Amino acid sequence: MGARFISIWLLGLVLMLPLHAYASFMPSHLIDGFANVVSWVVLIVLPIAFIALFWFVHIWPDTIAKRRQHPQRDAIHALCVLSLFFGGLLWPFAYLWAYTRPTMYKLAYGTDRYSPVEEKTDDTKDGTKVGQ
Known about the structure:
mainly alpha; 5 helices; elongated
């Protein structure tokens, strides 16, 4: 019983001895190169990716409004552009607006689909000026 206790105690002592400890998962000659790559990614690639993601998220409600032919998509587009300048505070409103339909829009305008605003010109259909 005593020999078994001593052998278990010695085995535990051997297992607790420190082995060679390394602070990195890479060999020491590759650490500087890896750190350089990580620093360039953090300084160059991530800011570009965050700006692109920020822009994409703020244009998304306009894309939804175009796909769904929202009758007020020009106003949703304006709100998306304003949201870019105000740091994203207006984006949730544009997102919700893109997924909702105006309640009385069809009654007032006769349709609930997008119709572009036509420019007013002085020409009539036959090519003569108005007032001639």
